[in-house]
């Protein structure tokens, strides 16, 4: 090796050593994820309860903290006792305001109501928007979700999104979900399915029995893909036998003869069984559907975390 070659080799080794010692030869480390919050604003509730009323039991302009659109709304039998039992700093009770209508698409003259599709979509969007805003402001607040009839479909659809990791809050923030007279009730058990409270009736939700019906304003969406996913183990469903909204005979509502099927569905929303969950007994102690839901929600709130506030 010549003198100049040796000098060049020494220089090359020195440059390589500097390069390695300076860290230039290392792959960049990924940035650390942000630290989870350890407290939240003082005004944030520990628990957020969200109640979704059924068809004809709400309105788009109703006050979510003092709903008066329908004083006989079934969900008031749950939300009012919870509001009375706990201070506002422990639980905030929000009733989703939405049009809550179900227009009969074959009525002559038209009945002037919003379509089921529009009503359901408005309710779901308002619920998602509220939860997204609340969790951004109050990242440690946990959630209790409950709904009846069309409201059960809405709450169940949002729970489905959350369980799939696509919802407005993470699944670990949801303490529980109860759906009374869910129109997308599968009647099944197993992975991803809700737990039935009371004796399970043999039928399915009308949206499943009518899968395939697509008429102006009404789309029957069938079962929820993936069920309730990560929140299935804390999701409950209540259905009274012969309530066609949640206990329709499988395939008995003929999607081909859509006129009679839709009329059956419209009538089902106002049938006596569907309107009597306040008195529908779900256990041997004589507990009614609304009483069970109230006790269930209160127990979750009692046991919920007490996040730090600042």
UniProtKB/TrEMBL annotation:
SMART domains attached to this UniProt entry: Cutinase
Pfam family membership, one:
Cutinase
Checking Gene3D superfamilies in the record gives:
alpha/beta hydrolase
According to the lineage, what is the superkingdom? Bacteria
**Keyword annotations:** Disulfide bond, Hydrolase, Serine esterase
**Family according to the record:** Belongs to the cutinase family.
In terms of PANTHER family, this protein maps to: CUTINASE 4, CUTINASE RV1984C-RELATED-RELATED
| Protein name (record) | Cutinase family protein
Record the organism: Nocardia aurea
The beginning of the lineage is: Bacteria, Bacillati, Actinomycetota, Actinomycetes, Mycobacteriales
